[in-house]
Amino acid sequence: MVGLYIPTKQSNIPMSLIPAKQPHLFSGIPTIDLKVPEAKSLIVKACEDLGFFKLTNHGVPMEAISELESQALDFFSLPLNLKQKAGPPNPFGYGNKHIGPNGDVGWIEYLLLTTNPDCNSLRLSPVLDSNSEKIQHALNNYISSVRKIACEVLELLAEGMNILPRNVWSKMVMNEQSDSIFRLNHYPPCPELVRSNNGGNVVGFGEHTDPQIISVLRSNNTSGLQICLRDGTWASVPPDQTSFFINVGDSLQVMTNGRLKSARHRVMTNGLKSRVSMIFFSAPPLSEIIAPLPSFINKQANQQSLYTQFSWFEYKKSAYASRLSGNRLAHFQIIPSP
């Protein structure tokens, strides 16, 4: 791919980026129709069992989805020196191979953006000039749609768990000061795997959990996303370009006092197919206090808080100072007294 780091025959991919064994496509991902009456109970069960599920009948037109994917591919096909005008990612902007400031790398290039159109315009205009209006329009339409999906899922989840008010989580995402972010990822084919006849994959994005409340992900029809099951094994998620995938984040794990657990996941690339993903990370305002809700604490039943309270700003700062694979919540856990 033009502009992305490509090793020569003499350069080897680090063994840390090549897993020993690739899982087969996993058939156990819950699929939930957003509009069926039992959606709320199905969402609760999926979040409890896996922290991850596929969402159908979401109401977002395929035209809006395809338009943003097309615009993203146009951007990633530009020469590297031009794309770099939208970077470096600090934290927002264009990034290539390096993920964050702590030494994590992957076979990836990406755009990390805010949900503020003006801020995104400042990043993209130097690269695209007047053509930035097209991708801006596609971004605004798409982000508006997936924000609504995130809020609808969170309200159904609250209702299914008998939490009042129903908008206890969605109001954080709809708040004008919400710190939600948006990410476009491009995982190009890895030519060294083809040359070496390795037949496997390399790490595109290393294993991690998302710090936010929930994430809303959509990708093209290329496999690569894997989730870690509760028994510690990795499962490859069958791609579905018409649906969205929802995963629980660290903040929701804390606010449910561990009843829901964030989904650990990673992305693998291969030598033949390109993968594009688009993720909305729903987050509270920076000043929001993250703590278990009272309904998840019952001292009479010896159900104590498992986490200290902290602001989203504090947790975000702590999370982004750690490696991807780290247990970011460990710093905030409380060992229950006997």
Automatic annotation (TrEMBL):
This is gibberellin 2beta-dioxygenase. It comes from Acacia crassicarpa (northern wattle). Pathway: Plant hormone biosynthesis; gibberellin biosynthesis; Hormone biosynthesis. Residues 177-284 form the Fe2OG dioxygenase domain. Its EC number is 1.14.11.13. The lineage of its organism: Eukaryota, Viridiplantae, Streptophyta, Embryophyta, Tracheophyta. Belongs to the iron/ascorbate-dependent oxidoreductase family. GA2OX subfamily. InterPro entries: DIOX_N (IPR026992), IPNS-like_FE2OG_OXY (IPR044861), IPNS-like_sf (IPR027443), Iron_ascorbate_oxido_reductase (IPR050231), Oxoglu/Fe-dep_dioxygenase_dom (IPR005123). It catalyses: gibberellin A1 + 2-oxoglutarate + O2 = gibberellin A8 + succinate + CO2. It comes from the Eukaryota. Its cofactor is Fe cation. The keyword Iron applies. Keywords: Dioxygenase, Iron, Metal-binding, Oxidoreductase. Catalyzes the 2-beta-hydroxylation of several biologically active gibberellins, leading to the homeostatic regulation of their endogenous level. Catabolism of gibberellins (GAs) plays a central role in plant development. Converts GA9/GA20 to GA51/GA29 and GA4/GA1 to GA34/GA8. GO terms for molecular function: gibberellin 2-beta-dioxygenase activity; metal ion binding.
